[in-house]
Amino acid sequence: MPATSADDARPDPDWEGVRLHVVTGKGGTGKTVVAGALALALASAGRRVLLIEVEGRQGIAQLFDTAPLPYEERRLAAAGGGEVFGLAVDAEEALMDYLEMFYNLRRAGSALRRLGAIDFATTIAPGMRDVLLTGKAKEAVRRRREGRLVYDAVVMDAPPTGRIAKFLNVNSEVAGLAKVGPIRHQADDVMAVVASPLTAVHLVTLLEPMPVQETCDGVAELQAAGLPVGGVFVNMVRAPLLRATDLRKAEKGRLDRAAIADGLAAAGLTGPGGALAQVAVDDAVDVLCAQASDHAVRVALEAAERATVMELDRPTYDLPWLPDGVDLGALYELAEALRAQGAA
Amino acid sequence: MTASVDQPRFGIDALLGDPGVRTIVCCGSGGVGKTTTAAAIALRGAERGRRVVVLTIDPARRLAQAMGLSELENEPRPVVDVDARAGGSLEAMMLDMKRTFDDLVIASADPERAASILANPFYKALSTSFSGTQEYMAMEKLGQLRAAAEAAGHLDLIVVDTPPSRSALDFLDAPRRLGSFLDGRLIRILAAPARLGGRAYLRFVQAGFGVFTNVLSKILGAQVLNEIQAFVASIDTLFGGFRERAERTYRMLQQPDTAFLVVAAPERDALREASYFAERLRAERMPLAGLVLNRVQTSALPALSSADAEAAADQLQRLGAAYRTTAGVLRVHAERVTTVERQRQLAARFTSAHPDVPVVRVPALPGDVHDLPALRRVGTALSGCATGAAPER
Ligand SMILES: Nc1ncnc2c1ncn2[C@@H]1O[C@H](COP(=O)(O)OP(=O)(O)OP(=O)(O)O)[C@@H](O)[C@H]1O
Ligand SMILES: Nc1ncnc2c1ncn2[C@@H]1O[C@H](COP(=O)(O)OP(=O)(O)OP(=O)(O)O)[C@@H](O)[C@H]1O
Ligand SMILES: [Mg+2]
Ligand SMILES: [Mg+2]
Q1: Could you say which of A99, A179, A241 has the minimum Cβ distance to residue B328?
Q2: How far apart (Å, rounded) are the C-alpha atoms in residues A249 and B193?
Q3: Using a CB-CB distance cutoff of 8 angstroms, which residues of chain A are in contact with residue B349?
Q4: Contact assignment for B211 to A262 by CB distance below 8 Å
Q5: Which of A255, A269, A276, A293 to probe by mutation at the B interface, max B CB count within 10 Å?
Q6: Phi, psi (rounded to 5 degrees) for B67
Q7: pLDDT tens digit string along A75-111?
Q8: What whole-number distance in Å separates Cα of residue B34 and Cα of residue A310?
Q9: Helix (H, G, I), strand (E, B), or coil: what is residue B320?
Q10: Distance (Å, rounded) from C-alpha A42 to C-alpha A344?
Q11: Are A326 and A302 in contact (CB under 8 A)?
């Protein structure tokens, strides 16, 4: 890709030095999409990036349009000389790894699994599940082969905002569970990565009241837990379709009705043979004004939500609303938008 | 698009007018409008003469306030400002999951034992964060409400909201999951030392229990394992019938006096979930009364297509500044009609897969639904008499 000239014009990436990007947000706001786009953006310029998911939903495979991911790193896509790999982390598998690595107990582990013991242990002590999942991310961040880092960056499609601080703050989660021993040790290791400048926790939001509220609460909670807050990714952004003066008038129901009627006639819509020939002009203008008013109300609400987001004083990145949904091609587009704004 | 022509029509009033329908359950994936729909149905039912209780789960704060649910009570309270002229009434409550669980413990154990269970850290984990506890407790509460309604005879319809979850199926599956978890083989193994004792226990150890505790104590530490065993022993007799209890409620939902509604937003993911749910209900022989397609975008000017509006806007743009306002409102119209059309196609996919499931559309109201008048508007839309919605093309 002849990307160098475009690269010259780009601002420096905002997250130099960050190797673990955790992407959270309210459910359905686009965490998986943003994590995928961010992974592609980080991979351009010849880097190796690992994209991991932790909720067993195979969201990454769906997004990249591939077969379900096993518990094994798979190459997903190429991006400007770099590569994105994918991994679906599973707590049971991670525990089996762990038993094997430290105790050489894989066979006993399999027996336990048949009994449902692993499910049991991770259920009755939910902190343990989180240590196993975050532990895998930590391991990937630190992994080296022949002295060199295997991945330049790891992106995690993480649990939603309501659970994120608890999920990452594994130390306090296992505090009641283990004061010493292997779980405790693992938790300390995880904290050394996630509560350090190696990590940035990004939040995805829409310009709607509930997602923005969750974002503000999430930032506060992360900060209180000493976890590094990254950027705010504003997803599904739509540009206003009316100019500012018309927006103001539309909101108050004061659009120039005569001018609209003239316009409809000039475009040949209301005349004979026009699409609106069978509709009374007044009625058509009524509907158009009412719809414009709905639009203006929405734009105003979005502006208010954006102001709230700005008060958080974090870097923000906009991702456009894509009317046809997000396929792999669209994901590259979103990645490019992120790079242009300095997110990667 | 003519997909909606043959689709059976659906109106909530048929259900509300049928005294044989005593429970209505609103299911659906996260954020689609389950709570709103349940509240709107309950209000409409009450105003049409039914004596209704609605069980809501995590309602948005302003909606809770509008229904007089300013605090968690875990018991139904009368809703004021309901039009009672038809002889109906409305009570509402929001589920307190932990308290329902606690009450279950208190009701089934002597005070001393109950106190020790409630204080156990593993009980706390189970009662607050096991995925499935909320569903189980919603079912439990529904069972209690049914029993109370039958005993006292003052209620004749229970409308149930379901917990926020990714999948509509969770409401059906999660209670069993919790039931079999608590009643499972593993719990019995962990509780075994207490129950078996003596030689039987020794044989058991030889059968592999040693390996099991050995590994668990490596992972968790010996002390934690002891605590878990103590907890399991203490709940063992208490919840021996847990699975059975879940099964009983489940069977209750299979009775003909229960009607399920699945709520979906006109989006791909939500409709896919609704589809899974419809298939599952059919497999379980549970009656699916209909699909509520919520927050549907409408346009009152369907004669003007998106492409025509867009082309006219482009043309006016070229004609000069005088026409900028018209060009703008035409672009707004084009975007809106595109959405209407996309939603219609998504819905048509559902209806061609499930031609026998009736559909009712509820338009997207301009603001959130957080007061009784807005709930009434949703109720009117649910009855199938479109208000403010555009007629189907
Ligand atoms: N910029 C966008 N434009 C259009 N559609 C989008 C955009 N971003 C996401 N979507 C769509 O929105 C839906 C939700 O996105 P996604 O699955 O990424 O959200 P999520 O936060 O990961 O959801 P969940 O909480 O269920 O994991 C998907 O159907 C996705 O294709
Ligand atoms: N027809 C509608 N028009 C406008 N807003 C609506 C409509 N239906 C629901 N809403 C709004 O959408 C939001 C989500 O609705 P609701 O809480 O009922 O969803 P839910 O399915 O219960 O969500 P959860 O899965 O989180 O419990 C609320 O703010 C509600 O006011
Ligand atoms: Mg996701
Ligand atoms: Mg709800």
Answers
A1: A241
A2: 77
A3: none
A4: no
A5: A269
A6: -95, 10
A7: 999 988 899 999 999 888 888 887 777 676 667 677 6
A8: 32
A9: coil
A10: 5
A11: no
Place of tokens 């929405």: A298
Rounded distance between C-alpha atoms, residue A212 and residue A206, angstroms: 7
pLDDT > 90? residue B278: yes
A321 lines ligand 1 (CB under 6 A): yes
The per-residue DSSP string of A96-135 comes to: HHHHHHHH--HHHHHHHHHHTHHHHHHHHSHHHHHHHHHH
Q: Left (φ > 0), alpha (ψ -120 to 50) or beta: where does B72 sit?
A: beta
For A89-96, the CB contacts below 8 A with 24+ separation are A89/A52, A89/A53, A89/A54, A89/A133, A89/A136, A89/A137, A90/A56, A91/A118, A91/A122, A91/A129, A91/A132, A91/A133, A92/A118, A92/A119, A92/A122, A94/A132, A94/A133, A94/A135, A94/A136, A95/A121, A95/A122, A95/A132, A95/B219
Separation CA B221–CA A173 (nearest Å): 15
Q: Determine the distance separating the centroid of ligand 3 and the alpha carbon of B244, expressed in angstroms.
A: 35
Beta strands in chain A (DSSP E): 20-25, 48-53, 74-79, 82-88, 144-145, 148-149, 153-157, 199-205, 229-237, 316-320
Q: Does the interface ipTM go beyond 0.95?
A: no
Residue-level pLDDT at A178: 61
The verdict on the CB of residue A231 being under 6 Å from ligand 1 is no
pLDDT tens per residue across span B222-239: 777 777 777 777 776 666
Cα separation, B340 vs B4, whole angstroms? 14
Joined tokens for residue A14 = 């905002």
Q: Would you state the pLDDT for residue A82?
A: 95
Gap between the Cα atoms of A328 and B71, Å rounded: 46
pTM: 0.88
Given the CA of residue A324, which atom of ligand 1 is nearest to it? 4
* Three-state secondary structure call for residue B357: coil
> What pLDDT, on the 0 to 100 scale, is given for residue A5?
47
Helices and strands: H and E segment counts in chain B: 17, 8
The reply to whether ligand 1 has any atom less than 6 angstroms from the CB of A205 is: no
Q: Is the CB–ligand 2 distance for residue B68 below 6 Å?
A: no
- Residue closest by Cα to atom 18 of ligand 1: A30
Q: Which among B307, B293, B282 has a CA at the least distance from the CA of B349?
A: B293
Q: Is A75 exposed, middle or buried (0-12, 13-18, 19+ CB in 10 A)?
A: exposed
* Domain A9-238+321-340 coded CATH 3.10.129.10: no
Q: How far apart are CA B392 and CA A144, in angstroms?
A: 62
Query: Which residues does residue A199 pair with via DSSP β-bridges, in sequence order?
Result: A20
- Tell me the one-letter amino acid at B322: A
Picking from B242, B236, B245, the residue whose alpha carbon sits closest to that of residue B113 is B236
Order of strands, sheet of A229-237, starting from the edge strand that comes earlier in the sequence = A74-79, A82-88, A48-53, A153-157, A20-25, A199-205, A229-237, A316-320
Residue B250's pLDDT is 83
Substitution candidate for ligand 1 out of B269, B271, B273 with most atoms within 8 A of CB: B269
Among B125, B215, B324, select the one facing A112 at the smallest CB separation.
Answer: B215
Ligand 2 neighbourhood includes B365 CB (under 6 angstroms): yes
| B63-86 per-position pLDDT tens digit | 998 888 876 678 899 999 999 999
Please give the pLDDT value at position A1.
43
Residue whose structure tokens are 């009374």: A280
Break chain A into its structural domains and give their ranges: 9-238+321-340, 244-299
